[in-house]
Amino acid sequence: MAAILVDTPLGRLRVSESGGAITALAWGGEPDGAQCAVLDKARRQLAAYFAGDLREFDLPLHVEGSDFQRAVCAAMQAIPLGETRSYGELATALGVPAQAVGQACGGNPIPVIIPCHRVLGASGLGGYSGAGGIETKVALLRHEGAAGLLI
Where are the beta strands (DSSP E) in the chain? Predict the structure, then answer.
């Protein structure tokens, strides 16, 4: 497994890959291993995203976990930039309880790229497992132009 560090407005992100696919994104840490094409592409796409020039990530991803975790991650990836969905909406689409969707969102191993920040609670923002918690979620929603719902 290899990892790079990418400086962003949210702080330094550590992006990891294995087998030619992105497997994790976390705040902080150290780089690890040799550079590779998929990490170079991730660095370029994250820079373009934060510059406002990228609407959708096009990276090979590998989500470790259950079939359910992968299904929730796929549902989050289908939410367009600038839009949001509720845990309940995703739960209805997947035929599962909203609480299970919330837990899967909290276990998202590749936040930002898999946009768990676009999933909101029925009566509020819900949580965010990335560094900075809700403040980071709000910053991402504002960056994507979805902040009108926060007023």
Answer: 2-8, 11-18, 21-27, 85-86, 119-120
